Amino acid sequence: MLTDEDYPAMNRVVNSEILHQHFGYWPVFHGAEIVKVIFETHVTGRYSVTFVIDPYKAWATRNVHQDATDCLIEIQFTGIQEMSFARFRAQNVIEELWFEEQGSLIKAHFDSYDEMPTELLAEEVIVLSLVPKSKRK
Organism's domain of life (predicted)? Predict the structure, then answer.
């Protein structure tokens, strides 16, 4: 479990309360899987990247009720200034997702087990949604 004291940049994640309300805290995403990545360009020049994360595997071996983890989480990074993204594969398990401030920007670190190192430097980080898999279309 990450705390605001450990990573003050987490206070800048828009809609972070969605995850706090669902899980009771901001998860580290240890063992979660990135199942989709969407790269978008915008006429404004504010490029974005959205990660769809399946947290189920992260908590499947812990004493967390399956209903709490049977969801997909969308986190979007807008106003991308720098990005390092490599080796997206059939399975993309992350060890941890954490943030740090770099001036007015937020740097995200996706630490990975399977060598999919990813770092982004963005103007804004937004939790777009948390959708139970049973309600997906």
Answer: Bacteria
Domain residues for the domain of 42 are 8-131
Domain-embedded: residue 136: no
| pLDDT tens across the length of the chain (137 residues) | 555 565 677 788 999 999 888 888 787 788 888 889 999 998 887 899 999 998 865 554 444 444 556 789 999 999 999 998 877 877 788 888 889 999 999 999 988 876 667 899 999 999 999 987 766 55
pTM of the model: 0.82
- Nearest Cα neighbor of 131 from 3, 1, 36, 9 is 36
- Say how many domains are in the chain: 1
| Residue 64, in any domain of the structure | yes
